[in-house]
Design brief:
With 323 residues, the chain is α+β, with helices and mostly antiparallel strands. It is built from 9 helices and 14 strands. It has helices at 66-83, 106-120, 127-137, 139-144, 192-202, 206-225, 229-248, 257-271, 295-303; strands spanning 2-8, 11-15, 32-36, 42-49, 56-59, 62-63, 88-95, 149-152, 166-169, 176-182, 277-279, 286-291, 310-314, 321-322. It has a 6-stranded mixed β-sheet, covered by helices on one side. The protein has a 4-stranded antiparallel β-sheet with strand order 2-3-8-9. Strands 11-12-10-13 form a 4-stranded antiparallel β-sheet. Bound molecules: ligand DP6.
Length: 323
């Protein structure tokens, strides 16, 4: 038997990845920029075992079936092919944050799986090769391999070419807290992969989003490097709004009444002088960006908004590692 364990953290995109290039290889159609978060983590152990007849994947003590298992096994297959490994694997993965926390577990999940599976197979991959491996399963996972502020370019013509995330700035570059306003318990109705496909095939605004996203990304990257908090926040809002506008036009509506109430509360806070900006992923929760020193005050205000079940305070953190 050969075994390895890895730990990875979720990330939140400030400039969103939404939409893929047609064809193989899970290549994003737009560049994205995210911040990896500390505190919450996914811990994944992979064991290649000659006694196993099939791969066995457990997440939070439940045996994974259906699409989730197919995606995890596809990653194991890529690792096996690279190494000439024939043994099946036992995967045991746990998230130390609740699945209804408003934070996607696929980014940290596939980052930890890519790291642990390659190490268990005896592959010593560098950060870029690991990020590329994770990206082929879930593009946001490519960014969770790295810590701090991380970018992932859009994919090119060749589905086999390496496409990895890179560090833009370390976690301490900007004094930032990300407040996660949880507005709903339970899984989302449309996963991001399906939401992207619907947007690409049905939204009259998809082309507009594809055109706008690289500009928003480039401006946001510049504002972040200049440590311009207000401009970074404004552009993060613009990215999320443009992404959701394109999805909504395809009938993919992730927002609920509570989502809108938090959006309006953040704008009211801003009108009152607070440097607070929102971003929203493929779900109804709202993530609010504030300077680190204002985290507690703004958390208390968000907790009072109708429909908000809980508010988690997170901060920029490090990348994935072996345990
Ligand atoms: C809204 O990385 O989950 O969170 O590549 O199909 O697995 P797949 O999609 P995924 O999409 C994330 C979408 C997003 C924005 C982002 O994280 O950039």
């Amino acid at each position: 038997m050969s075994t390895a364990t890895a730990i990875a953290h979720p990330n939140i995109a400030l400039a969103k990845y939404w939409g893929k290039r047609a064809g193989e290889g899970n290549r994003p159609a737009v560049p994205s920029l995210s911040v990896t978060l500390e505190g919450m983590s996914t811990r994944t152990q992979v064991t290649f075992d000659a006694a196993l007849g099939a791969d066995e994947v457990r997440v939070n003590d439940a045996l994974l079936e259906g699409e989730g298992a197919v995606r995890a096994i596809a990653l194991l297959d890529r690792v096996r092919a690279r190494r000439g490994e024939a043994r099946r694997a036992r995967v045991v993965s746990t998230n130390d944050f609740p699945t209804a926390s408003g934070l996607a577990s696929s980014a940290s999940g596939f980052a930890a799986l890519a790291f642990a599976a390659s190490a268990a197979a005896g592959l010593d991959l560098g950060a870029s090769a690991l990020s590329d491996l994770a990206r082929r399963s879930s593009a946001s996972a490519a960014r969770s391999i790295l810590g701090g502020f991380v970018e992932l370019a859009a994919g090119g013509e060749d589905p086999n070419a390496e496409l990895a995330a890179h560090v833009v700035a370390p976690p301490e570059h900007m004094d930032l807290a990300v407040l996660v306003a949880v507005t709903h318990e339970g899984p989302k109705a449309v996963g991001s992969t399906d939401g992207m496909t619907l947007t690409r095939t049905k939204s009259p605004y998809f082309a507009v989003w594809i055109d706008a996203a690289p500009r928003i990304f480039a401006e946001l990257r510049g504002a972040l490097l200049a440590r311009d908090f207000a401009k970074t926040g404004e552009l993060a809002e613009a990215s999320a709004l443009a992404m959701h506008a394109s999805a909504i036009a395809a009938g993919v509506v992730y927002w609920t009444a509570a989502t809108l109430d938090v959006i309006h509360a953040v704008r009211a806070l801003r009108a009152a002088g607070e440097a607070a900006y929102f971003t929203i992923d493929a779900g109804p929760h709202v993530k609010v960006l504030v300077p680190g020193a204002r985290a507690e005050q703004v958390r208390a205000k968000l907790a009072e908004v109708r429909g908000v079940l809980a508010v988690r305070v997170t901060r920029p953190g490090g990348g994935a590692r072996l345990a």
